[in-house]
Write a structure and sequence with these properties.
This protein is mainly α. The protein is built from two helices and no strands. The longest helix is centred in the first third of the chain and has 15 residues. The chain is rod-shaped.
Length: 58
């Protein structure tokens, strides 16, 4: 017969390892969804737009 402490620990370990298993598997397979870098209506002159790279003076 197993002690109640040992049984509780095993139940907790099992619950922890199974928690979110379906979600974790889904995220591993699909990862971050693709999204457009410049969505439609993007304004390159907007204040938060990325600045063009400066050419180095030689």
């Amino acid at each position: 017969m197993v002690s109640s402490t040992k049984q509780t620990w095993r139940l907790r370990e099992r619950r922890r390892s199974n928690a979110g298993k379906r979600r974790k598997r889904q995220m591993r397979v699909h990862g971050t969804p693709a999204f457009p870098i410049h969505p439609p209506g993007y304004d390159p002159s907007a204040p938060d737009a990325k600045r063009p790279a400066r050419e180095k003076d030689e």
